[in-house]
Amino acid sequence: DIQMTQSPSSLSASVGDRVTITCRASQSISSNLNWYQQKPGKAPNLLIYAASSLQSGVPSRFSGSGSGTDFTLTISSLQREDFATYYCQQSYSTPRTFGQGTNLEIK
Amino acid sequence: QVQLQESGPGLVKPSQTLSLTCTVSGGSISNAGFYWSWIRQHPGKGLEWIGYIYYNGATYYSPSLKSQVYMSVDTSKNQFSLNLHSMTAADTAVYYCAREVYSSSSIGINWFDPWGQGILVTVSS
């Protein structure tokens, strides 16, 4: 199985901050990497697919980059509604695997 | 707009079989380009992929759960189902159904969207 490791596991930031979350795969996964946002009691919501493609309806302050084993999710200017948990997920092979999550909290 | 909705029991006794159904609305489950997936989340934990089924009945299960899982599809009802046998407390989780979109032109460019709202299943006597 491909292991996905996110860092940091938790992060405190303020409204307006620029935030970067990192995801590392245990082997090369090309650009087969997705990012999801999950709020408490809700299902995950797709933000970014194929490493850098913004899902329709997702604000442009979210962006993704990377290929191979190292990927980043960047939020350019945090809004209050962005405080949530973020997960990366590889679609390169089965079984599909997710990172452990990054909990983004208000400072 | 495609929507997914899980249904089933919220409480299962140890050793019993969990049966969940996901109803798809706003689109046909028989359309090509999609895998119909189950994913679970243990309380306070991360996401675990269980497996998927294609509209023609082809399946792929996670190796870690393969001996415990069975999935089926009913195209006439636009539904797909998950059976999880020999449930234990370790199977207590929120279970999500989700559509995995795949690209026929770019291998591996797949993503989960949309997701159902999730159903909490507790294993307890």
> Biggest interface and which pair forms it?
A-B, 28 and 25 residues
Mean pLDDT over all positions of chain A: 97
Helix residue percentage of chain B: under 10%
Report the order of strands and helices of chain A.
Answer: EEEEEEEEEEE
Q: Output the radius of gyration of chain A.
A: 13 Å
Low-confidence stretches of chain B: none
Q: What is the tally of beta strands of chain B?
A: 11
Question: How would you spell out the order of helices and strands of chain B?
Answer: EEEEEEEEEEE
Mind telling me the C-alpha Rg of chain B? 14 Å
- Described by its quaternary structure, the protein is heterodimer
Fraction in beta strands of chain A: over 45%
**Secondary structure: helix percent of chain A:** under 10%
- The beta-strand count of chain A equals 11
What is the straight-line distance between the termini of chain B?
Answer: 39 Å
Figure out the total of helices of chain B: 0
Q: What is the mean predicted local confidence, pLDDT of chain B? A: 96
The helix tally of chain A amounts to 0
Broad shape of chain B: globular
| Helix/strand class of chain A | mainly beta
Strand content of chain B: over 45%
Could you explain how this protein is built, in words?
The complex is a heterodimer of chains A (107) and B (125). With 107 residues, chain A is mainly β. In chain A, 0% of the residues lie in helices and 50% in strands. Chain A has no helices and 11 strands. Chain A has strands at 4-7, 10-13, 19-25, 33-38, 45-49, 53-54, 62-67, 70-75, 85-90, 97-98, 102-106. In chain A, the strands form 2 sheets. In chain A, strands 2, 4, 5, 6, 9, 10 and 11 form a 7-stranded mixed beta sheet that branches. Chain A has a 4-stranded antiparallel beta sheet with strand order 1-3-8-7, with no helix packed on it. In chain A, a hairpin with a 6-residue loop joins strand 9 and strand 10 (97-98). The radius of gyration of chain A is 13 Å and the shape is globular. The model of chain A has no long low-confidence stretch (mean pLDDT 97). With 125 residues, chain B is mainly β. Helix content of chain B is 0%, strand content 53%. In chain B, strands 2, 4, 5, 6, 9, 10 and 11 form a 7-stranded mixed beta sheet that branches. Chain B is globular, with a radius of gyration of 14 Å. Classes of the chains: A mainly beta (107), B mainly beta (125). The A-B interface holds A 1, 29-32, 34, 36, 42-46, 49-50, 55, 87, 89, 91-101 and B 37, 46-49, 51, 60, 62-64, 96, 98, 100, 106, 108-118.
